[in-house]
Amino acid sequence: MGATAKKTDTQKKPRTAPPEVRRAQLIDATITCISKCGISGTTLTGVTKEAGLSLGLVNFHFKSKDALLTETLNTLAAEHRDLWMKAVQREDLSAADKLTAIIEAQFHPSICSRKKLAVWFAFFGEAGHRKSYRENSSQFDIERQEICAGLCRQIIAEGDYASPDADGISMTLEAMFDGFWLNMLMYPSKFTGKAAVKQVRIYLATLFPCHFNA
Amino acid sequence: MGATAKKTDTQKKPRTAPPEVRRAQLIDATITCISKCGISGTTLTGVTKEAGLSLGLVNFHFKSKDALLTETLNTLAAEHRDLWMKAVQREDLSAADKLTAIIEAQFHPSICSRKKLAVWFAFFGEAGHRKSYRENSSQFDIERQEICAGLCRQIIAEGDYASPDADGISMTLEAMFDGFWLNMLMYPSKFTGKAAVKQVRIYLATLFPCHFNA
DNA sequence: CAATTGACTGAATAAGCATTCAATGGAATT
DNA sequence: AATTCCATTGAATGCTTATTCAGTCAATTG
């Protein structure tokens, strides 16, 4: 339905666009395709049809199908990292606030829509044998887990809590992040992002009652 | 290596075997192939080569490749269910003991070898769009979660604990199960089954200190 | 022993796929 | 206007794959 931005000469969409735009379009279409058909069901014909572009464009803007898939995953991973990193870098937030921000980023609607979750797990399913799928995103995971462990250590020191096991707690947090993601994908009616955040906060409130409340 | 059961005439392996045996061989080979190459890299040529059988046998013993994959997943799901169900059905165990048994089953080496984890997540990755992959195993997941919730309710009643949210706890347990599985697959050197059991027990010990200890 | 049955084989088939590339389009530059 | 350059197109190519099936083999039955 008509989107006429400038009356002057915007009537027909241009037949050509800068590579950046095309790459973004193709990555978007790839996300849609993977979420609908899985990685094994995602074909270049399908992706380009979804994007409304012609078949040959993928190999023009990307080296190969594999490069398109890898860059799709990297895009999702970077988008996620940007969101929580923004909060972690703020100087005015307490350790508990930063940890809360990481949790909320994990379950933010823009990060874990059903569509994107399907893509994440499609990649996890292939990650076992595809090194390129692990490289980037696992680096981010490790980075986030180490930051979480550091924040936990700080909170433990602040509150003088009994449990000294910041590494164990951050491991468990990581597991809860991924586990709730999977359950949100498989049983969306039973598991929502809101409920996940709530449960993670209950876990933290049990451990650090002075810093968190359910 | 020699396995000579009966001296009389067992020298060469028979060229033919009952369908049950062949089906099991093919499912085994499928697990190996998926763990090595993912679902998209698993071909009938590869499976039959792995099994040391001829190409045509898959479509003889199974309706199709898809049927083979579905039955492979169902086999894994049933194997897992059998393990925890055996403990849950015992009349002599307390609720806490049964919950412990479920946790230990979840991370039992026979259930979550790296090989089998790779297969589980390969299926999760495709489950979004393949109804047949969800049907059986998700039924088992729901069943297990409801049993866990019941056990939690019982424990809460026994210990007169403050937290009344058995459903939330069982949701969190489920998430920890899946999340630790994923982390065991992705970072096997950092995450082991033993460590996972320990962390889950710590979680329960925090909630139910009279029933569990870390 | 002959006949029958069920398991097994692997070459042949047909469909689908990623990738290539010669040709086209059109915007920017000369 | 002519030229250059880059984005774009989609038919053609060559490879991989699931599935079929006509035939082989061996055990069991009559």
UniProtKB/TrEMBL annotation, chains A, B:
Question: InterPro entries, per this entry?
Answer: BetI_C (IPR039538), DNA-bd_HTH_TetR-type_CS (IPR023772), Homeodomain-like_sf (IPR009057), HTH-type_TetR-like_transc_reg (IPR050109), HTH_TetR (IPR001647), Tet_transcr_reg_TetR-rel_C_sf (IPR036271)
The residues covered by the HTH tetR-type domain are 20-80
Keyword Transcription listed? The answer is: yes
- For whether the record's keyword set contains Transmembrane helix, the answer is no
Which keywords has UniProt assigned to this entry? DNA-binding, Repressor, Transcription, Transcription regulation
One of its Pfam families is TetR_N
Q: Which domain of life is it from?
A: Bacteria
Question: Which sections of the sequence are annotated for DNA binding?
Answer: 43-62
Q: What is this protein called?
A: TetR family transcriptional regulator C-terminal domain-containing protein
Organism, as annotated: Thalassovita aquimarina
